[in-house]
Here is the input.
Amino acid sequence: MLAHSAANLPSCDSMNSIFLLFVTCFGQKGGPGIVTFRYDPAGSGYTRVGEVTEGVTSCLHATTDPGQRFLYVADNIDECDGEKGGAVAAYRIDAGTASLHYLNHRPSGGGAPCYVNVSADGRFVLVANYGGGRVTVLPVEADGSLGAEVASFQPEMPADKEKSNAHCVRLDAANRYVFSTDLGLDRIFIHAFNSKTGALDPAPLPSIRTAAGAGPRHLAFLPSGKHLYCMTEYDNTLLAMSSDPKAMGATPDQAEAALPAGADLETSGADVLVHPNGRHLYSTNRGHDSIAIFSIDEKTGRVRPAGHVNSGGSFPWALSLDPTQRFLLVANQKSDRINLFSIGGNGATLTATENTLEIEKPVSFTWIPVDP
Here is the structure.
């Protein structure tokens, strides 16, 4: 268990609430797929209250519906219902008992599903399948369970590329456009989203081309929705661009190194997270085991490197802010640990704390509020 001193905490709505944190676990055999923590910011801090193995085996990512009643999980298995490839599992959340109730699963439509996103109305779950590069759309039934695939996108293979690996899929705030990264093709694909049918239709700009071998991985939007950021895996670069397909160029507007000058070791970029105030963002470097900090020009969306801190463990896979926005959580996957950093200067600084959560192979975070 991890505790904070109530005397040092600010007075705000989030400080007087209770939250559940669902953490997905990837890369282990026989362990939990999802671990649940109860978080009391003004009292006991974090308490591990449950774990889930039913319905999932090796979880890479999870997210909730907008109403935060259901949890959807990308499960990296070899076969689902007789179909080769991974699965997406659906759970009903019982916030009062901090429990997850398995509803069903569906084939993800490809191998190694690694990212899930839910449409703004909660009617569709979008899935990025790393193996084969397919992006698929699954409908959500009235009870929160998943229906069979209703739409998909499979990119064409260029002659100069060997494989397609979708790694992230995100809808913009207006629920109009779908952005998906393809690490193998060095592309960020764009589709117009049909919110009635789930179809992925042509967008004004079909894709953005990154540098050869960059490996675009994860995406994050500025809170205003006007700008989009991408962390690349292979060359550890942060990309900045407009999020309007009618105004975007064929390549990113800006590319900044996420590693400090002179860093020379095997490393890979992973996650990117924009602070809610829109003034700073953070990205992770696995291998270098660091968090890069960038400042953001809110008008232009351009970024400026603002420093690095050690991640506190090995292979920082994912980032999240706690609901009070006072702490940054870092999932150090190979250390079996989540490290907490206090946030200062309106997001400009990160300071390591002694607070950690011991957990098996953490790779993603999902929060929901609970009535105290």
User: Anything to note?
Assistant: The longest strand covers residues 200-209. The chain has a mean pLDDT of 93. The domain at 6-370 is CATH 2.130.10.10 (Methylamine Dehydrogenase; Chain H).
